[in-house]
Amino acid sequence: MKKLLNTVYVTTEGASLRKDGENLVAEVDGAERARVPLHMVGSLVVFGAIFISPALIGACAAAGITLVLLDRVGRFQARIEGPVAGNVLLRRAQYRASDAPEDIVRGLVMGKVSNQRAVLMRALREYGGDLASEQRAAIAMVTKRMARILRRVALADEHIEALRGAEGEAAQLYFSVFDALVRSPDPQLRFRGRSRRPPLDPINALLSFLYTLLTHDCRSAAESLGLDPAVGFLHRDRPGRPSLALDLMEELRPVLADRLALSLINRRQLRAQDFEARDGGAVLLTEEGRKTVLTAWQERKKEERRHPFLEETAPLGLVPYLQAQLLARHLRGDLDAYPPWFWK
């Protein structure tokens, strides 16, 4: 099943990728380093200056394998894919729903805020005794305020801007205590508030990198079902922005990305030397740091959880596809509402 196939990541600059028969072959300095059958590849993501043969590009397009080009630090550059196949009736339903998206946005916001709150409550249970009293009090206060936001979103008939405001309020509360969850001995690995484009500290660099990987998976999930990844509900339409992929990502970020970032830092799999500062203040992962994160990301996606709505066990890497399927069923009228994914 295509959605379960692997994403191949290539991070070694100067590598060459070519097609040999029905295989993807990676070479470094003329020596073959890896060979993967194309039928086992779901998508190909390359970082930095890597040669890709025209024959391989054509084979990927013909086989429905998406090729994503990122720069050496993980910023998106381009996406190459074959002819787009999709259900025009589903897309028309998506466009109509985007004009009055309150019900879908309500589900997305509830899923995101609930999962952010669950991350904080899990942290209190796992190492609450190691936290200073003021840190425990601050986290407990934030979880209570987030519970009130959830009740307000669930019960009130709020306009789209009010729902977006509730999501922003919850995110501000969540990140205001995120540093207390970081248990690294390295003084450089502290979280001083969310910063993007560029990230200004190692924690933000790690979060941004993981969010890029998750966005790619969510976009692939939307496109696999024939949904338009550019037309979202929570995120406003903007040229070049995959708004629907960003929507699908929101409820999954706390569990798939934030929890993984904390695990890598707190288990000391990433240390201060795995990040580098650039001119202008940007902080980025080193090549070795990226490899560590990519390995952990692939392992994380293999972990299985029970889906609260479907009541079936599935790998975490499959959750974006399941949520995209549920969204499509709601748009078709098979479900009364979009059911968010709640982490327990």
Question: Which helices and strands appear, and what pairs or packs with what?
Answer:
Elements: E1 6-10, E2 16-20, E3 23-28, E4 31-37, E5 41-47, E6 51-52, H1 54-63, E7 66-70, E8 76-80, H2 88-99, H3 102-127, H4 133-155, H5 160-176, H6 202-224, H7 243-250, H8 253-266, E9 275-277, E10 283-285, H9 287-302, E11 304-306, E12 313-315, H10 319-332
Parallel strand pairs: 1-5, 2-6, 5-7
Antiparallel strand pairs: 2-3, 3-4, 7-8, 9-10, 11-12
Model description:
With about 350 residues, the chain is of the alpha/beta class. It has two domains: about 1-80, Ribosomal Protein L15, Chain: K, domain 2, CATH 3.100.10; about 90-330, CRISPR-associated endonuclease Cas1, C-terminal domain (Four Helix Bundle (Hemerythrin (Met), subunit A)). Helix content is about 45%, strand content about 15%. It has a four-stranded mixed sheet, sandwiched between helices. It has a four-stranded mixed sheet with strand order 4-3-2-6. A hairpin with a 2-residue loop joins strand 2 (about 15-20) and strand 3 (about 25-30). The protein is globular. It starts with 5 loop residues before the first strand and ends in a 12-residue tail after the last helix. The model is unreliable at about 1-5 (pLDDT under 50).
The level of helicity is 40-55%
Number of domains: 2
**What structural class is derived from the secondary structure elements?**
alpha/beta
CATH architecture classification name of the largest domain: Up-down Bundle
- Count of helical regions: 10
Q: Describe the strand arrangement of the main beta sheet, using strand numbers.
A: 1-5-7-8
Low-confidence stretches: 1-5
The H-and-E topology, N to C, reads as: EEEEEEHEEHHHHHHHEEHEEH
CATH domain class of the largest domain = Mainly Alpha
Radius of gyration: 21 Å
Q: What is the CATH homology-level superfamily of the largest domain?
A: CRISPR-associated endonuclease Cas1, C-terminal domain
Number of strands: 12
What is the name of the CATH topology of the largest domain?
Answer: Four Helix Bundle (Hemerythrin (Met), subunit A)
Mean pLDDT level: 87
Shape: globular
